[in-house]
Design a protein that fits this description.
Layout (H helix, E strand, L loop, with lengths): L7 E6 L6 H12 L10 E6 L4 E3 L5 E3 L4 H6 L2 E4 L11 H12 L3 E5 L3 H6 L7 E2 L6 H7 L4 E2 L5 E4 L2 E4 L4 H14 L1 H11 L26 H8 L8 H8 L3 H11 L4 H19 L4 H7 L5 H12 L3 H8 L10
Parallel strand pairs: 1-2, 1-5, 5-6, 6-10, 7-8
Antiparallel strand pairs: 3-4, 9-10
Helix pairs in contact: 1-6, 6-7, 11-12, 11-13, 11-14
């Protein structure tokens, strides 16, 4: 049913070399008129500092608005930038700052958070970005409270998301805020995506190959990895390394940047992830084979570290060819 309200104005900032996917997501969600879901829908403008901008993949984005239109928008979306190591365009940073001061809802997708941080509007706020860029964002903007584990976060009308597909999650959340759950559920069905995903970025993190090249600890680590299904204590590790407990702990902090027992739990969870991805073993067997004992113990530690239950992780990541070992 048509209302008398004006369409909500969404400005999507476009920058040189911007990744296609993160730029396309807000255009798909806000830029296609859907009067059967809500009328009016949104009024979308692609705003650049130039009439046309070369983005990734050899594509060119033609601007339908400029920085003045961005400042006047109700919602400003800043997708990923080409490189987090380069300073964002000064004109864009200034326009985002001005739009925020004027009361606009500000959204950063993936590395778009760097533009928001450069504008100063993330200072003192909770934010996120792609987990690969979280450390760089923290280093350059220490006043920002970065949580690299979540898919998206809102703090005082400023929204940020993790990378790539998390931009869909965040844009759907904005539609939910504007039009309600019924509309966002219908939209998600059309996009063939969940209206809300479980967990956060933790389930997508690449676990680092910690200290594998450190000649002092590598033999011990490989020995422990081959025995994850067995009880292992700090004394067992120290005895194997021919070190005192204190020396072993210090060496782990120096090379692995965590305690021996924390590293052991980290490896057990990693092994459980591989079993969940590649086998059809019952959860109880996954727990036993990874050294976590019971299914309830696996679930408790798995949710704490990965952000979802073992069952949810298996549904999301297990390949169709997964089989029980030996089959």
């Amino acid at each position: 049913m048509r209302t008398d309200f004006a369409a909500h104005r969404v400005a999507v900032a476009v920058t040189e070399g911007a990744p296609i996917f993160e730029l396309a997501v807000p255009c798909e969600i806000f830029g296609i008129d859907r009067p059967d879901l809500a009328d009016p829908w949104y009024e979308l403008r692609i705003c650049g500092t130039e009439p046309s901008t070369r983005v990734a993949g050899g594509f060119t984005a033609h601007a339908t608005g400029d920085m003045a239109d961005l400042v006047r928008a109700d919602t400003v979306v800043v997708p990923s930038c080409a490189s987090v190591h380069e300073s964002p365009p000064t004109a864009l940073v200034a326009a985002v700052r001005e739009a925020h001061a004027a009361g606009a809802r500000i959204v950063g997708i993936c590395s778009g958070a760097f533009v928001l941080a450069a504008a100063g509007i993330l200072d003192g706020r909770h934010a996120t970005t792609h987990w690969m860029h979280a450390q760089e964002l923290t280093h350059r903007y220490p006043k920002v409270h970065i949580d690299p584990k979540v898919l998206y976060v809102e703090d005082g009308g400023v929204y940020t998301s993790a990378g790539t597909a998390a931009g869909i999650d965040l844009c759907l959340e904005l539609v939910r805020a504007d039009h309600g759950a019924g509309v966002v559920n219908a939209l998600a069905r059309r996009l063939v995506t969940p209206p809300h995903r479980e967990g956060g970025q933790a389930q997508y993190l690449e676990l680092p190959a910690v200290a594998r090249d450190d000649t002092r600890l590598a033999p011990l680590l490989e020995w422990a990895r081959s025995r994850l299904d067995q009880p292992l204590t700090l004394d067992d590790l120290a005895r194997r390394a021919s070190l005192s407990r204190r020396t072993l702990a210090r060496r782990f902090e120096e090379t692995v940047e965590m305690s021996p027992l924390r590293w052991l739990l980290h490896e057990r969870i990693h092994h459980a992830q591989r079993l969940l991805e590649t086998t059809a073993l019952p959860i109880e067997h996954v727990a036993a084979n990874s050294g976590l004992g019971t299914a309830s113990n696996l679930r408790r530690h798995f949710i704490r570290q990965v952000g979802v239950s073992p069952q949810s992780y298996r549904r999301a990541f297990q390949g169709r060819q997964a089989r029980r070992p030996g089959h």
